[in-house]
Amino acid sequence: MKQIATTGIVLQRTNYGEADRILTILTPDHGKLRLIAKGVRKINAKLAGGIELFSVSSVTFISGKGDMGTMISARLDKHYDQIAKDIDRTMLGYDLIKQINRITEDEAEQDWYDLLHKTLAYLDDNVISMDVIKFWFLASILRISGYTPNLQQDAKGEALDANKRYRLDESTMSFNETESGTLTANHIKLLRLAFDKHEPLTIQKIKDTNSLIQDCVTLLQNMIRVSLRI
Known about the structure:
The chain has 230 residues and is α+β, with helices and mostly antiparallel strands. Helix content is 36%, strand content 23%. The strands form two sheets. The protein has a five-stranded mixed barrel. Strands 6-7 form a two-stranded antiparallel sheet.
């Protein structure tokens, strides 16, 4: 059988039998793979070092008759070891990986791999706020999925006004002007940066980011719940 080489990030590991593991791996060119790593739980198993969480690995596998292939080799290319040194970053990392696994189909496009790869790199950098990473990550999920709110006009087609307050209608992805609205021009500015693909370090430098970020995270979570039904 033909051996296939690719790069991957482990999304999920499940023990199987006495010494094997079933892995779900996200790749840039083969979507999501389900591979069995035989004997990987044995002491000194050669495959074990190449399938760490929070890592990017070079993987060689053989396709199976069904939806599961067999891993032949795995070499660790980059391990983001700083994540595991901080329990809060570790837990956030687990949560974001699970979200990617839930959202993506087997034929996941490279955008999803790139998002996860960048997310691990940002989590590995203690300078970057976890709240900002989460905000950027959620906005990226919506953007890649094709759900971007109208950040230029309100629900009536009028330009968003810096002096007005708004509430987002998640079902139409548009803003409604209302005196009781919790969203201001500063919230919308922050959202624009994220949906325009600005990176977390840039977003973090914006004035008042810390006071705005939780409102924006809640907003994005509601949008994902309504749009992606997760």
